[in-house]
């Protein structure tokens, strides 16, 4: 499993800013990739799908600690991270002949079919492809070069303000849902679990849930059966 972080604005020069490889995608893998990519930077928005590792509590705590605005894409909207998928395709196509040979070698020598060795070799190969891509695009300028820094700061500030407004709206909506349906547990825990989902998706889920739920008032303490 390949976990990556990409700067959408600079993807023509640098395909991925950070990556990690493991047997399966996990919150720990995501934490390390995001931390590597965000080192020394501010104002980062992290766009992902709604996969479990990205929404896990451990990953969410890491985003908050690093200061990253997590923005999971809406359901049924894969185009929001299409550039990342194209980057995966570039790496897969570049490494396909090499991986085919390595798979044949591992088939002939079973002792080489070890997860640790596979991770190390795959990490080396992906790092090599990324270095080659970066070297071939060294002549390109960053798309933001030459722009007014004050204008860029204003845009970043607006985006962060919008993200915070969305976060406040999500929190208020989840608190209202928790109270209306008398959800078990604390409101804080309920919000913490679901706060990373887009507001539109949460509203859609509540509408579907509403048809199968019962919001009857609790029985009177004086009622006897």
Offer a concise description of the structure:
56% of the residues lie in helices and 7% in strands. The chain contains 8 helices and 4 strands.
Distance between the termini: 57 Å
The major beta sheet can be summarized as: 2 strands, antiparallel
Task: Kindly provide the name of the CATH class of the largest domain.
Answer: Alpha Beta
Low-confidence stretches: none
Rg result? 23 Å
Helix content: 55-70%
Outline type: globular
Strands of the largest sheet, in order across it? 1-2
Tally the helices. Answer: 8
Q: Number of domains in the coordinates?
A: 2
Strand content: 5-15%
Order of helices and strands: EEHEHHEHHHHH
Structural class by secondary-structure content? mainly alpha
CATH level-4 homologous superfamily of the largest domain: Ribonuclease H-like superfamily/Ribonuclease H
Total beta strands: 4
Mean pLDDT: 81
Write the layout of secondary structure elements.
Blueprint: E1 2-5, E2 18-21, H1 27-38, E3 45-48, H2 52-55, H3 57-66, E4 69-72, H4 82-108, H5 115-136, H6 149-180, H7 187-194, H8 199-210
Parallel strand pairs: 3-4
Antiparallel strand pairs: 1-2
Helix pairs in contact: 1-3, 6-7, 6-8
Description:
- The structure is a single chain.
- This protein is mostly helical.
- The protein has two domains: 2-136, Ribonuclease H-like superfamily/Ribonuclease H (Nucleotidyltransferase, domain 5, 2-Layer Sandwich); 149-210, no CATH class.
- Helix content is 56%, strand content 7%.
- The protein is built from eight helices and four strands.
- The protein has helices at 27-38, 52-55, 57-66, 82-108, 115-136, 149-180, 187-194, 199-210, and strands at 2-5, 18-21, 45-48, 69-72.
- The strands form two sheets. Strands 1-2 form a two-stranded antiparallel ribbon.
- Helix 6 crosses helix 7 (187-194) and helix 6 runs parallel beside helix 8 (199-210).
- The N and C termini lie far apart (57 Å).
């Amino acid at each position: 499993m390949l976990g990556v972080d990409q700067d959408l604005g600079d993807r023509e020069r640098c395909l991925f800013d950070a990556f990690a490889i493991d047997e399966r995608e996990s919150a720990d893998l995501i934490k390390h990739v995001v931390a590597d990519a965000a080192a020394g930077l501010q104002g980062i928005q992290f766009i992902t799908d709604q996969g479990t590792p990205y929404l896990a509590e451990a990953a969410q705590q890491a985003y908050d600690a690093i200061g990253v605005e997590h923005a999971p894409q809406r359901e049924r909207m894969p185009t929001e991270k299409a550039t990342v998928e194209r980057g995966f395709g570039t790496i897969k196509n570049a490494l396909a002949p090499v991986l085919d040979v390595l798979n044949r070698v591992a088939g002939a020598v079973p002792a080489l079919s070890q997860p640790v060795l596979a991770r190390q070799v795959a990490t080396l190969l992906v790092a090599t492809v990324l270095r080659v891509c970066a070297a071939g695009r060294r002549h390109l300028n960053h798309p933001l070069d030459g722009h007014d820094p004050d204008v860029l700061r204003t845009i970043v500030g607006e985006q962060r303000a919008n993200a915070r407004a969305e976060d406040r709206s999500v929190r208020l909506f989840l608190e209202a849902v928790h109270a209306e349906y008398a959800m078990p547990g604390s409101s804080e825990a309920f919000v913490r679990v679901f706060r990373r989902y887009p507001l539109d998706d949460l509203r859609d889920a509540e509408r579907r849930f509403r048809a199968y739920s019962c919001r009857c008032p609790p029985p009177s303490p004086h009622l006897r059966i």
